[in-house]
Amino acid sequence: MKKSKSLLLMIALVLVIGTVLAGCGGNKANNGNAAATNAPGNEGSTNTGTATGDEKLAADQTLRVNLTSEPPTFDPAQAQDSQANTVLKTMYEGLTRMNDETGQAEPGIAEKWDISADGLVYTFHLRDAQWSNGDPVEAADFVRGWKIVLDPNTNPTAPYAYQLYYLKNAEEYYTKKVTDFSQVGVKAVDAKTLEVTLKSPTPYFLGLLSFYTYYPVHKSVEGNPKWATNKDTMITNGAFTLTEWTTGQAIQVTKNEKYWDAASIKLSKIDFSIVNSGATELLSYKNGELDRAGNPNGEIPSEQLPIVKKELPNEFVSKGIAATYYYYFNTTEKPFSNVKIRKALTMAINRQALIDNITLGGQLPAFGLVPPGIAGVDGEYRNTVKDSYFTEDVEQAKTLLAEGLKEEGLTALPPVDLSYNTSENHKKIALAIADMWKNNLGITVNTVNQEWAVFIDNRQSQNYQIARAGWTADYNDPMTFLDMFVTGGGNNDAGYANPEYDKLITDAKTNSDLAKRQEDFAAAEKMLIQDDMVIMPIYYYTNNSLTKEYLKGVTLDFSGAVDFTRGYLLEH
Q1: Can you give the pLDDT at residue 40?
Q2: Percent of the chain, pLDDT > 70?
Q3: What residues contact 324, with CB distance under 8 A and at least 6 apart?
Q4: Measuring CA to CA, how many Å separate 30 from each of 159, 200, 474, 537?
Q5: What's the CA gap between 152 and 354, in Å, rounded?
Q6: Is the pTM of this model over 0.85?
Q7: 183: Cβ–Cβ under 8 A, 6 or more apart, which residues?
Q8: Which domains does the chain possess?
Q9: Gap between the Cα atoms of 425 and 257, Å rounded
Q10: CA within 20 to 30 Å of 461's CA: 120, 288, 371, 454, which one?
Q11: What's 478's DSSP letter?
């Protein structure tokens, strides 16, 4: 079959923009507020280089970093937060892995692949790789992992199941319209050959394959639903293995000598402390107890950012990333089911004042969902599709609130619960916004702090009124933000259901006309924000971190996801 002009354009787009995965990120961002000013000379990737002839490695290659919260699980099918992503990237490898410098997918467990002329069939040829117990990594391990993600009987269901809907009949299997998994577009041709059939050409598919939802799982997981919560049952195929997990205190991963590219791994261990205090993390860094601090897995208190930027100019890095900080409205609960009330709350805050006085960084006020840095048809999506979906207008907000309350038969808005996960910076933002709502709209707000796992569970079950959220790109395309809100989506914590929105997303997933596809994205984002105000955008993230000058090889991609696997420590 001849390639259409549009298909060729789509393939070209992949080569130009890359498809960089957040690696969880992409995913639910549970790290603290990423606020900072741009440090001159520190923009761009946090790639600290590779060893040169005159560099001497430290005798102890143990990297020490902090997690602000404990990952609830290391099951690739269940993971959905930046903390789990950070650790999972050290323990697993997909068919591809992302080169954070080039933004391109490169061979991982698949050493090469063939793509059919119509862009629908991918044939992956696996390299000779081993699991940490010495078993060979085989095509069947990928089939097993993907089947678990798509299994509609999994309890709880996989939050990222929709990320596999690009496969032929994947959605149909998940929704039980198809009951035979052999009809889904993935099969092991033999031990070293995996064939994947898509429902339509997907320009970012190779990048998606490095995302943790697409990881393989070892055959030992069968019949053991708790395998990913115990280090003794974790068999991994990546650069490191899980060797210690002290609940609420620390996680340790150790170099996997069975990893196919073990020769490239210089670190012997990575010690992750688990401390949800940014002040403690910063003090530990200054005392030499941590080699790196800050986003995406850690946190630097916002009021300390201007100080550390001056004190440690050679160690501080600030980088704009493709991520958005926002609040969810529970659209399934009155009175937040009323769009006028949601609009009133959204319009009644001052985002720039919040940035200038609370987060103290160089973030950009957000008036949409898709952040800068995400590719569109011609350059960045945000440069063409402006995020002018609403304005900050207190008087208009008061009018809308009064109209919404009248429609709900209320004379005043009852006290509002605003939930956030444990973080000093999230707390500061919540208190500031609560104060704006009180002063501008006369609303009483109760701020509710919850531990991460509890917070996520409550948000997913719509057991909240308003809750903070953050989303980082899983790949470089607007779809990674917009397909969250389809009806019944695993990450649709707002409970939003709009058939018109669903159709726009479906059309964008199957349309090979890039210009029309972008029109669908623009229409969907307008519907989500301007028309229905499902979320309250607050700001587009910047990522702030401190890295000791002796730590090299750690990379940060455009979405803010960090990769520690190729890091190393110099003598110091």
Answers
A1: 25
A2: 91
A3: 366, 369, 370, 371, 470, 471, 481, 537, 539, 540, 541
A4: 16, 33, 15, 16
A5: 42
A6: no
A7: 168, 169, 172, 173
A8: 68-246 (3.90.76.10), 320-543 (3.10.105.10)
A9: 39
A10: 371
A11: T
